Batch of 3 targets.
Target 1
Amino acid sequence: GAVVSQHPSRVICKSGTSVKIECRSLDFQATTMFWYRQFPKQSLMLMATSNEGSKATYEQGVEKDKFLINHASLTLSTLTVTSAHPEDSSFYICSAGDLIRRTDTQYFGPGTRLTVL
Amino acid sequence: DAKTTQPTSMDCAEGRAANLPCNHSTISGNEYVYWYRQIHSQGPQYIIHGLKNNETNEMASLIITEDRKSSTLILPHATLRDTAVYYCIVRVSGSLDYGQNFVFGPGTRLSVLP
């Protein structure tokens, strides 16, 4: 079946540094990928929609200058958390749908756990 | 997207069937019922989806009532590895609306007990 990977799976960084998270669709193409954030004991919340070749669209309350999204190809989207602070510590998950086969469902990555000290 | 209502938590004995209910009384005619689950510290995993007919795959069965206002996910022989949060999501098929995300509610925390 379709696979979405994320790298790294886990990252610890110091406050004020930037962290890049990659999301790849391994066996399908995706013009749209979604980035979610999940805090402990909460559900997934959509942060932004990543569009290949164009600007990402952000959900209300998500700072676009802090969470930089780049979708440079049909198989790769990156999320960069700039000037990270402890409150940015969370579980970040991406998802994508198959552009060509247009399957009914979407596929989720394994997630990246970010801890900001 | 239609809202869904699920119990906060459920327990199930290992080897028994786990029946997880979901209410979606405002579902529209073109909206599917999707089920995903999330095992601790992992990304959501697709389980099954359906429009109006009952569906079965190697993981589970999905029973949708005739009026489509509720559904039940059935794990026929629950194992300890099925302990997870189960999300019932109602939305238009991805094949028709490729650019739409999934909206997650709080889900049901299923604990399979030995």
Target 2
Amino acid sequence: ILNVEQSPQSLHVQEGDSTNFTCSFPSSNFYALHWYRWETAKSPEALFVMTLNGDEKKKGRISATLNTKEGYSYLYIKGSQPEDSATYLCAFESGSRLTFGEGTQLTVNP
Amino acid sequence: KAGVTQTPRYLIKTRGQQVTLSCSPISGHRSVSWYQQTPGQGLQFLFEYFSETQRNKGNFPGRFSGRQFSNSRSEMNVSTLELGDSALYLCASRRSQNGEQYFGPGTRLTVT
């Protein structure tokens, strides 16, 4: 059974704060690491797919890094806004199968 | 470009019945994956189909089955429903392995 862990489970920040979450995953049989944002009453939305050790990706105020040798990825949000409130999921891909973590629930207070 | 669609959106069934859920992927996407989400659990992988072949299967009992048609549309079937099958069932499609997955809105199944 693959273990994908995310921390923290939940986070409350003030508007304008920068924040980061961690995803840890097995370092063997790695194919890709996915990040998703899941807002209430919506479908999960893909943020990044990363495949190479040392990968860094950025989309607006959100960025992610990947370390496949030690099995972790960080997601950073710079200058959090209330609309960033959501659950952030990471998923480890091995073969064609994605194993999801339980997510970090972010609440940004105005 | 139309997104992933799932039907029905909501369903209520009784224990022992069976149910079929449908997923239409984004045009051009040949991979369809199914997930179950229950309260307190993350997304649990059910299975993945690519070009009508099941490529991968999660740790679910044989009551859960699926198939994919030549137009890439996929169906998921659950037989002999149990109360614990009440969940949100999501499907996701993508063009290729390690590509971004695009999720549908889900089917909320309630078993009474």
Target 3
Amino acid sequence: AQSVAQPEDQVNVAEGNPLTVKCTYSVSGNPYLFWYVQYPNRGLQFLLKYITGDNLVKGSYGFEAEFNKSQTSFHLKKPSALVSDSALYFCAVRDRSGGYQKVTFGTGTKLQVIP
Amino acid sequence: DVKVTQSSRYLVKRTGEKVFLECVQDMDHENMFWYRQDPGLGLRLIYFSYDVKMKEKGDIPEGYSVSREKKERFSLILESASTNQTSMYLCASSSDRAPDTQYFGPGTRLTVL
């Protein structure tokens, strides 16, 4: 079975400060990991993914995420937050040995960037 | 750009009604998905399809069925709507070339009274 946990329902950060949105995962094999963002009244948009290789993955809108196998984490980061980054963020995981359709999403973290 | 459209943004139905949610994608994607999104539960996969007329159950298929008669269209059917099916429904698609990158529609907020 595969699962993903986003321990924070909401994260507040001041504009211009660095932000981190946390994610931990559990799979029986090796993971594929993803981050998606949902802006108000819109569908989810793909941000970035970790498949293999470099543990630091860069994605859209200046976001990056770091894969840490020993801590089974895939935290989303950005050096300087913008008010427009305020949205709902979802982490997702898929076991490499599983069917590619079976992606498991986390419960989401609401990011609030304060001007 | 990939475009995934859903037939309605908001829908209100009564208990026991048959409900159809339609999803269309314009990028010739092989795979299509239906999720429901609920606060505190995130996204849960209801059904997916990897080819025309092919479908597989996701994690919560009970009370739902699907239809994929054409490659671009994937329909979610609630045979007899119940109040616990009040939710946001999200459709997504992906290609076999990049199966893990899913493109989502704007969602349909269904209320069952």
